[in-house]
Amino acid sequence: MTAVAGAGTAVVTRAARSRKGSALQRGRRRLYVPFVAPALALYAIFLLVPVAATVWISLHKWPGYGAMEWAGVKNYRYMFGDPVFQQAFENTLLLLIGGGVATFAISFGLTMLLRDLAGRSTVRSVIFFPNIVPALVLSILWGFLFQADGLVNKLLRAIGVQHPPAWLSQDHQYAMILLGLVWISTGFYTTVIMAAVDRIPPYLYEDCLLAGANSWQRFRHVTLPLSWDVIGVCSVLWTINSIKTFEFILAMAGSASGLPSTRTWTVSLYAYATAFAADGVPSYGLAAADAIFTLGLVAVLVVLIRRVMRRDAIQF
Asked: How far apart (Å, rounded) are the C-alpha atoms in residues 111 and 118?
């Protein structure tokens, strides 16, 4: 009985040591907090504290100076009932969905077109170039191209179009902004997707050709599944970038004396215009409410995208 009890004690001791891990593992656990604490401190100082402060400001009426006046959820009620915000939200969704569909469709098309091209590295560098130039510069260039006496209208007149469209009029301005944002973004997402396609083994495409698969079938059954994880990341990046876009719109549709027309605003530009009102009293409470709404919108959409596009990793 003594031997059995001793054996049982030894088994329990070994199990306890196994749960605690080796000396190396215990040492790593002791170093976890010292290594992670500085990053957590910076994260709290530069993200959590500003977000908490923004939430607090959104619950007050405050012009940016003096004492704050408690408003509760009045800022949120006013914002959701404001026709300007509703137009800005519609524009944001149009950019997010319509611009996203156009950007990814062109990116996929360019990826499949350039996949077997001899000089694809050079072409990839060329189409990626707009992402190197600041968006502010590109927006000014885009405006010059489509103004009344710009290069586009000159080319149209040269081929016989006597009355070219007024591209930058109120009716067409936001459409031109969407077109410009798609142009800027396409090169980036094409480059990322091409990098994902480059890692797909060529023999898979060769097998498809031997089986008689056409271009769409190769894309549907090989390219898309094997680059799905990268496409998911690109979708998240597009969601974040499209919702927070405002400098391109401000520079292209605005003027030196004021903001652009409210018909071209997005939720980010709404927050900017509310906080830095040039012809009125700033309302930091309303701007903070818009910022919190934007943050919540991004968080919800990112979680939904990750859940919808979550798949088991494919090994190849």
From this structure: 13
Q: Which of 264, 270, 232 is nearest to 79 (CA)?
A: 270
**DSSP labels, 292-309:** HHHHHHHHHHHHHHHHHT
Q: What is the pLDDT of residues 256-303, one digit of tens each?
A: 557 888 889 999 999 998 988 766 778 899 999 999 999 999 999 999
- How far from each other are the two terminal CA atoms of the chain, in whole angstroms? 57
Q: CA-to-CA distance for 310 and 232, rounded, in angstroms? A: 8
Encoded tokens for 44: 């709290």
Query: Which whole number is the average pLDDT over 185-198?
Result: 90
pLDDT at 204 over 50: yes
Kindly report the backbone phi and psi dihedral angles of residue 258, in degrees, each rounded to the nearest multiple of 5, phi listed first. 180, -175
Contact call for residues 145 and 156 (beta carbons, < 8 A): no
pTM of the predicted model over 0.85 = no
Please state, as a whole number, how many other Cβ atoms lie within 10 Å of the Cβ of residue 261. Answer: 13
Q: Give Cα separations from 255 to 3, 45, 168, 202 (angstroms).
A: 91, 36, 13, 52
pLDDT of 157 reads 86
Q: Which of 89, 294, 106 is nearest to 184 (CA)?
A: 106
Give the single-character DSSP code of 45.
Answer: I
